[in-house]
Design a protein that fits this description.
The chain is α/β, with parallel strands linked by helices. It contains 14 helices and 15 strands. The chain has two domains: 146 residues, Alpha-Beta Complex (Aspartate Aminotransferase, domain 1); 222 residues, 3-Layer(aba) Sandwich (Aspartate Aminotransferase, domain 2), CATH 3.40.640. It has a seven-stranded mixed β-sheet, sandwiched between helices. α6 links the parallel β3 and β4. α3 packs antiparallel against α11. It is globular, with a radius of gyration of 21 Å. The structure holds pyridoxal-5'-phosphate. The site of pyridoxal-5'-phosphate has 14 residues, from α5.
């Protein structure tokens, strides 16, 4: 028979970050020496106390279906975390646990959007935002920012793109891919526009714990009770606790929305893995020393990679204040040629660096900004220093 794929899925683009990582892995498996700057996950192991909690859950037979929206113990840990870290008070029916923050975002957009609705997405954006918004039939409205202004949106810019169809806008601070971090005052300004225009705020706070130089990431929901009432905060354990494979994320917000998301989960995934939920209880409510160790190491790497990149002619970059990526401007080198032809955009540049230098970077086009490439520093210091040398040499060969 002729197999047909739905228009919805046929029109969906594959995650470029995962694709680059897969290509780099395949080259490595074939014996090529590839240094990966593509990773979207910490290179640390999950802390031992967290893994032990999972083993305990298995041994104690906590392996059956759980409540769809998460075990009460995990909801309680999440509620305490919001109270302690963000001065936000939620009740259990305002929290839902999903199979990763990505799953929370998917369920959220499925729950709040109709075809024709609009969602404002600042660019550079995390690759999945436009995809999951589009899947609902709603329209992503891309709001471009500039490196000069730290890749941040200001209230006037937000106001200028809101229409009567706008349902929500997405904020991701610290940001993947730019590492920018909004101050409380900046968040307040954006929140005012959301209130004025009566739109929802979707705040992806997955990198909340990964901030450098002593800065902290405030939650936009903390601005006021009025703002909290129109905000859905999405967070999870993947990045802060090196738990990307465990698949636990969560959302907190207005009870009607959380209920709708839980209903969707009840008919699709059911509960997130019971064992992972018990591990997440330990991650969120156990000792946090491992986070500090990770942040200290990421800080060192950030400083080395930023200094190294800035020393390469043709590259400019901001120093990220959070997350573990540098979003570097390579456009000063566009128009030059390698042996294989001209390099005119971020995809050409990523292809050249992978094939000729064995360096895996993610092209900025995946995040909506073609002048840039993203380098993850969730890789060893040796890889960073070795990779920077190789990068300088490969770019120096261009004519
Ligand atoms: C990694 C990431 C997520 C998804 O995290 P999971 O909990 O592993 O699904 C969400 N948002 C951003 C910006 C990310 O980088």
């Amino acid at each position: 028979m002729k197999i047909k794929i739905s228009d919805r899925i046929a029109g969906l683009s594959e995650s470029v970050t995962l694709a680059i990582t897969a290509r780099a892995k395949a080259m490595k498996a074939a014996g090529k020496d590839v240094i990966g700057f593509g990773a979207g996950e910490p290179d640390f192991d999950t802390p031992a106390n967290i893994s032990a909690a999972a083993v305990r859950a298995i041994n104690e037979g906590r392996t059956r279906y759980t409540p769809v929206g998460g075990i009460p113990e995990l909801k309680c840990a999440i509620i305490n975390k919001f109270s302690l870290d963000n001065a936000l008070n939620y009740s259990p029916d305002e929290v839902v646990v999903s199979c990763g923050a990505k799953h929370s975002l998917y369920n959220l957009f499925q729950s709040i959007l109709n075809p024709g609705d609009e969602v404002v997405i600042p660019s550079p954006y995390w690759v999945s935002y436009p995809a999951v918004v589009s899947l609902t039939g709603a329209k992503p409205v891309i709001l471009r920012t500039s490196a000069e202004r730290g890749f941040k949106v200001n209230p006037d810019e937000l106001r200028s793109v809101v229409t009567d169809k706008t349902r929500a806008f997405i904020i991701n601070s610290p940001s993947n891919p730019t590492g920018c971090l909004y101050t409380e005052a900046e968040l307040r300004g954006l929140a005012e526009v959301a209130c004025e225009k009566d739109i929802l705020i979707v705040s992806d706070e997955i990198y909340e714990k990964l901030c450098y130089g002593g800065s902290a990431a405030p939650s936009i929901a903390s601005v006021s009770a009025e703002v909290k009432a129109r905000t859905v905060v999405v967070n999870g354990v993947s990045k802060a606790y090196a738990m990307t494979g465990w698949r636990i994320g969560y959302a907190a917000g207005p009870v009607e929305i959380i209920k709708a998301m839980s209903k969707l989960q009840s008919q699709s995934t059911s509960n997130p893995a019971s064992i992972s939920q018990w591990a997440a209880v330990e991650a969120i409510s156990g000792g946090q020393d491992t986070v500090d160790v990770m942040v200290a190491e990421f800080t060192k790497r950030r400083d080395v990679i930023v200094e190294g990149l800035r020393a390469i002619p043709g590259i400019t970059c901001n120093s990220p204040e959070g997350a573990f990526y540098v979003f570097a401007d390579f456009s000063g080198l566009y128009g030059r040629s390698s042996g294989d032809g001209p390099i005119n955009n971020s995809l050409d540049m990523a292809g050249y660096l992978l094939e000729d230098a064995g360096l895996a970077l993610v092209p900025g086009s995946a995040f909506g900004e073609d002048k840039f490439l993203r380098l993850s520093f969730a890789t060893s210091m040796d890889n960073i220093t070795g990779g920077l040398k190789r990068l300088g040499a490969a770019l120096g060969k261009l004519s």
